[in-house]
Structure formats: structure tokens, C-alpha cells
């Protein structure tokens, strides 16, 4: 691989080729390198003033065996101010303030991420830090149906690790993946009543049941190889088998009935979707805006334990002229 992560942050999105992830032997993988691009384009019927935008789109510097190598955020306007900070859950949040937008504004982000294979160091938390993930949030408030499911599952399994596996399986078997029936504001109780929904609905249901049986659990927003949009899954916080008194973050993807692994890239964690919404904001105008988003994400390097590598042909990659300010 001859291109540095920094150089890849200046690549034209459509020109970057990817390794075919469907043929990867994941059990043999020592190291993977991902390149990601997202665009959030807002259009308005007329001018807007005092636009305040929040973006949670950049992965953490370190999350277990995942490392953020570099990132870039670009805004289509010259006049704006920006700041970044960590929220209470440790996520990197960008705040952008634009005094005036005539008709449209575009926010773009490039990220370069590395993940390691079986050399993973468990992500450990103190019990005190996990208490916030035991309490129900607005989108995971339980109803009688969720409470009944929790009682049934807990009666069949007392070990927290096996119980988390059972909850993951139950959500997958109970739900049908279907678009257009729920929204991001749909609660776990509402989605369970429909028995249909998207990844955020599967995750909210699993969160609600985990918390009801005493397992701290948090919502994960990120990306899954092969999916065009963002993806959601769950990190359960389970008693560490090697570090007494510590909790180990163990990730489950109830939508795909699996443990989250090297095909998943974590961007942010929280109590539910509302804590980690990729983009949100407000402005002064008598009309709403319209969002169009797009994403490209994929593998550009795979290294196996035997030292062999699969890389992309970088000869066709085109690079941008940096004519706009970078936040």
C-alpha cells in the first residue's frame, strides 16, 4: 500500500477502489484498513440565518482494536466557525455555526481507520461508568410486552454472557427487517408491536430487554461493510472473565444475528439513537430544509497473519484541489 492515510483524505470519493470484502477469510486477518467518505447536503427553499449544525460522524481515536488514523471535515461555505468536543459518552462532536446560507450547504467527512484481528484488547469499563446504560432512555422505555419478554429470557438463562446471546437471537427471530414502517423516533415498544423495522429498531429492542434483565447496554452507531447507509448495533457490558470488578464491552448485531466484528466500524456510542444521531441542527427560517446524504466505505488493505496482503490498485485514484476551508 503506497498511499498514506493523509493522502487518502484528499481523494475524490468516487475514484477510490475497494477490496472485495465478500472473499475475505476473516479468521486469518491480522489487520484491515478502511477508507470512508460521507456527504450531508442540505437544501432550503430560500435563505436561512444562524445555522447551528451538530455532526457525530468521526470514529473515536481508539475503540478496542479499532484506531482512527486520520480524518478531515470539509464545509462548502467560507464563512463559518467550528469547534469540537467530547460528549458525556466520549464521542467526538463537531459544532458548526454558519451566519447565512443562501440555498444549500454541504458537509463532507473523510476517515481512515485501522482494525486489528485476534490481537484485540478487550474494551473495559468500571461498573460506575456503566450505570447510565442500565436506565431506560426515551426510545427504550419498556412496555408490558418488553417486560414479559425479559422475564421469559431471564428465566431460561442466568449467565450474563449467555443471556446476552439469547437476547440477540430473540430479537433477530422476533423481528422482520423492513424499511418504511418505522422512523428514527420510533420507540422499542412501538417497533416490537410492529415486529418490523430497521437496524436501529432491532438495537433499541435489544437495549430495552438487556436493561430490564440487569445487563448494561449501549447503542452503537457506525458502518457495516456492504451497506450503503449507516448501521446500528449493541454493546453489552458484561462481567470480565479476566478482570474482576470490570465490565467488558461485547458487541452484538441483532439485525444480522451475529457478534459485531471486523466488518463493523464504530463511530459513536450512547443510550439510544438520539445520543448519536450523525447530523442534527437548527436555523432561523420559516421553512424546513431537505437533507440528501451519501456514503462510500470499504476496505483498501487486508493483511493476513501469514504476512500476505490484499490491496487496491491506487493508480486510478484522483485527488481534490483544496479550495475550501477545512474544519
Describe this structure in words.
This protein is α+β, with helices and mostly antiparallel strands and about 325 residues long. It is built from seven helices and 18 strands. The chain has helices at about 5-10, 125-130, 145-155, 160-175, 190-195, 200-210, 275, and strands spanning about 30-45, 50-55, 60-65, 65-75, 80-85, 90-100, 105-115, 125, 175, 195, 215-225, 230-240, 245-255, 260, 265-270, 280-285, 290-305, 310. The two termini are about 30 Å apart. Helix 3 crosses helix 6 (about 200-210), helix 4 (about 160-175) runs antiparallel to helix 6 (about 200-210) and helix 5 (about 190-195) packs across helix 6. It has two domains: about 5-120 and about 280-305, Immunoglobulin-like (Sandwich), CATH 2.60.40.2250; about 125-275, C8orf32 fold. A hairpin with a 4-residue loop joins strand 17 (about 290-305) and strand 18.
Characteristics:
327 residues, alpha+beta, Immunoglobulin-like, C8orf32 fold, six-stranded antiparallel sheet, 7 helices, globular
Write the layout of secondary structure elements.
Blueprint: H1 5-8, E1 29-43, E2 48-55, E3 62-63, E4 66-75, E5 81-86, E6 92-101, E7 104-116, E8 124-126, H2 127-130, H3 144-156, H4 160-174, E9 176-177, H5 188-194, E10 196-197, H6 199-212, E11 217-224, E12 231-239, E13 246-253, E14 258-259, E15 264-270, H7 273-276, E16 279-284, E17 290-304, E18 309-311
